[in-house]
């Protein structure tokens, strides 16, 4: 029973729940950024490169073989480096977006920290003593 209780305490701690939420949001955010890269950023880059899509870039290591009827006997062996290039570009853009988000959050935290907290009110006894002092000065 002790192990189950320990696990329950661990699972409901704030850090574990926060991490779970972060993973879920991060997964959804990753899909958005990947779509942005694939559907918005890469097409213009492909056009600038002469209509080449990075995912189509490959080196043929071994040609495929077809028979006299035109049927494929063996598939070609390809080194598809374009997919790797696409993933590197995706990573760089995702990392940059996350960097900018963290930088913005940190600047907001610094502004909150920079705002000075009002000085604490003096204790009630000190206020009363000051009032008595002021009355004695007058009288």
TrEMBL record:
<protein>
    <recommendedName>
        <fullName>Large-conductance mechanosensitive channel</fullName>
    </recommendedName>
</protein>
<comment type="function">
    <text>Channel that opens in response to stretch forces in the membrane lipid bilayer. May participate in the regulation of osmotic pressure changes within the cell.</text>
</comment>
<feature type="transmembrane region" description="Helical">
    <location>
        <begin position="40"/>
        <end position="61"/>
    </location>
</feature>
<keyword id="KW-1133">Transmembrane helix</keyword>
<feature type="transmembrane region" description="Helical">
    <location>
        <begin position="12"/>
        <end position="33"/>
    </location>
</feature>
<feature type="transmembrane region" description="Helical">
    <location>
        <begin position="81"/>
        <end position="102"/>
    </location>
</feature>
<keyword id="KW-0407">Ion channel</keyword>
<dbReference type="InterPro" id="IPR036019">
    <property type="entry name" value="MscL_channel"/>
</dbReference>
<comment type="similarity">
    <text>Belongs to the MscL family.</text>
</comment>
<keyword id="KW-1003">Cell membrane</keyword>
<comment type="subunit">
    <text>Homopentamer.</text>
</comment>
<keyword id="KW-0406">Ion transport</keyword>
<dbReference type="InterPro" id="IPR037673">
    <property type="entry name" value="MSC/AndL"/>
</dbReference>
<dbReference type="InterPro" id="IPR001185">
    <property type="entry name" value="MS_channel"/>
</dbReference>
<keyword id="KW-0812">Transmembrane</keyword>
<dbReference type="GO" id="GO:0005886">
    <property type="term" value="C:plasma membrane"/>
</dbReference>
<keyword id="KW-0813">Transport</keyword>
<dbReference type="GO" id="GO:0008381">
    <property type="term" value="F:mechanosensitive monoatomic ion channel activity"/>
</dbReference>
<dbReference type="Pfam" id="PF01741">
    <property type="entry name" value="MscL"/>
</dbReference>
<keyword id="KW-0472">Membrane</keyword>
<dbReference type="InterPro" id="IPR019823">
    <property type="entry name" value="Mechanosensitive_channel_CS"/>
</dbReference>
């Amino acid at each position: 029973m002790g192990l189950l209780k320990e696990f329950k305490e661990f699972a409901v701690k704030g850090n574990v729940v926060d991490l779970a939420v972060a993973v879920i949001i991060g997964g959804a955010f990753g899909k958005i950024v990947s779509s942005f890269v694939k559907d918005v950023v890469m097409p213009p880059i492909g056009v600038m490169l002469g209509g080449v899509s990075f995912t189509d870039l490959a080196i043929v290591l071994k040609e495929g073989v077809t028979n006299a009827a035109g049927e494929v006997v063996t598939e070609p062996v390809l080194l598809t480096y374009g997919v790797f290039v696409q993933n590197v570009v995706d990573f760089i853009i995702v990392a940059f977006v996350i960097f900018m988000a963290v930088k913005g959050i940190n600047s907001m935290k610094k502004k909150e920290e920079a705002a000075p907290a009002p000085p604490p009110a003096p204790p009630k006894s000190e206020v009363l003593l000051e009032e008595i002092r002021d009355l004695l000065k007058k009288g």
